[in-house]
Amino acid sequence: MPARTGGVVVDAIACSLFPFGTVLGVVSLVTLSQPEVKARFG
Fold first, then answer.
1. How is residue 42 annotated by DSSP?
2. Separation of CA 20 from chain center
3. Residue 34: per-residue pLDDT
4. Contact in structure between 29 and 11 (CB atoms under 8 Å)
5. The predicted structure's pLDDT at residue 30
6. CA 42, CA 23: separation in Å to the nearest integer?
7. Rounded-to-integer distance, Cα 31 and Cα 28, Å
């Protein structure tokens, strides 16, 4: 599994851990969806 996909999966799971996991998961998903980050992961 590519690293970015694994990060998205882990972040989605973290969103279920209220309240800190939700905040961390959302921030991570937003960060991983940025074009610059996508380019760095290839």
1. -
2. 14
3. 93
4. yes
5. 92
6. 26
7. 5
Both ends of the chain: CA-CA distance in Å? 13
Return the number of other C-beta atoms located less than 10 Å from residue 11's C-beta.
19
pLDDT tens-digit readout, 1-42: 688 889 889 888 888 888 888 888 889 889 989 999 989 987
Cβ neighbours of 25 (radius 10 Å): 19
Amino acid identity for residue 23 in this structure: V
Distance CA 5, CA 35 (A): 14
pLDDT of residue 1: 60
Helix, strand, coil shares, percent, the chain, to 5: 75, 0, 25
The answer to pTM > 0.85 is: no
